[in-house]
Amino acid sequence: MANVVVVGSQWGDEGKGKIVDWLSERADVVVRFQGGHNAGHTLVVDGKTYKLSLLPSGVVREGKLSIIGNGVVFDPHAFVAELGKLKALGVSITPDCLKIAENTALILSLHRELDGYREDAASNSGTKIGTTRRGIGPAYEDKVGRRAIRVMDLADLETLPSKVDRLLTHHNALRRGLGHDEVTHEAIMQELTSVADQILPYMDRVWRVLDDRRRAGERILFEGAQGTLLDIDHGTYPFVTSSNTVAGQAAAGSGVGPGAIDYVLGITKAYTTRVGEGPFPTEQTGEVGDFLGTRGREFGVVTGRKRRCGWFDAVLVRQAVAVNGIKGIALTKLDVLDGLDEIKVCTGYRLDGETIDYLPASQGAQARVEPIYETLQGWQDTTAGARSWNELPAQAVKYVRHIEELIGAPVALLSTSPERDDTILVTDPFQD
Ligand code: IMP
């Protein structure tokens, strides 16, 4: 019985929602292990569209256990709001089908505010990250700074006040420095106690729940958010999110051992997009970028921002295959390339007169690399809705085969439209 980790192999928005939904139908347990409500996963189940940010994709299917692992940063207000929206759509979520790890760090309003203050200040100096302004970075800072309020603290009203004091000593110093009002102890206590009753019923010892389920032979799906190039260590630092988005985090971020992971599936878009600031070697700002953006409907689920678009970058995905241990990819949005006469693929970079086959780690070098392209012939027939290789134009098959060769990983799933069934299955990750 295989447990599967799904990660994005580019800068996020690779189309994880559909693939995770497809996989979650086959899983017993679905686990989020990093990030927070900065993620945006769109699921279409039985004709209904669900937009999830914080909750694992399993919540929209009956009979699945959904888990928010300790590696997530958890905004209680976003949680309550998302639960409310799902209830309005007829989805019933109870503590029997959703568990939140007791040791999960909280995102509070002061984190969201700090995220915004910093981004505003950085806009003036041209150094902003382009975050989702959800407080993700500041919440992770408090976690590693050992001053976070965690879910379990909501149940311990004796020690909570001293934890709040410790948090505020830090935050109020920052807020004063940035020219903003301080936050009072009472305001934070009120914020926490007002949501405690809605959160605590879901709290559990998640590491044990997962251990029991694993021993019982259940299938566990670990649902990554964002993408490898946004990883705090392996991404385009500092233009990254504040968590490890790579597959290894599935273990630490939920409390299972690395041996519990059998298969890593990398979701990979047939071209490249990114939201926010930062290097993007194959970005196309002209006609090609507009074509991809319009055809691919490249707008963020969470912030509505227009995504930057460009050609497929095999250097980046090959690196993602290595750092995640990706066994197979789910290739998405191939149909967006339909109708192009020529398609370019980046196979290497030129950096300061040399040719390299990796993304350098330094910010300066990442900004200077120039893509080396191969040009492939496009195809005029549509790939949209294809459900077998025979239905694909020959040039499209060639494109896919070439990508496999360049990145060093096979296609396990090929998605040919947002519809669930428009998927060509080569390898079922749970059966591998
Ligand atoms: P943060 O995660 O809000 O701190 O944002 C940091 C960077 O990650 C920004 O460039 C965001 O646009 C990007 N980011 C965060 N979440 C997502 C996502 O789910 N998809 C794509 N980009 C994201």
TrEMBL record:
The active site is at 13 (proton acceptor), 41 (proton donor), 143. CDD domains: AdSS (cd03108). It catalyses: IMP + L-aspartate + GTP = N(6)-(1,2-dicarboxyethyl)-AMP + GDP + phosphate + 2 H(+). Pathway: Purine metabolism; AMP biosynthesis via de novo pathway; AMP from IMP: step 1/2. One of its GO terms (molecular function) is GTP binding. Homodimer. This is Adenylosuccinate synthetase. It comes from Manganibacter manganicus. The gene is purA.
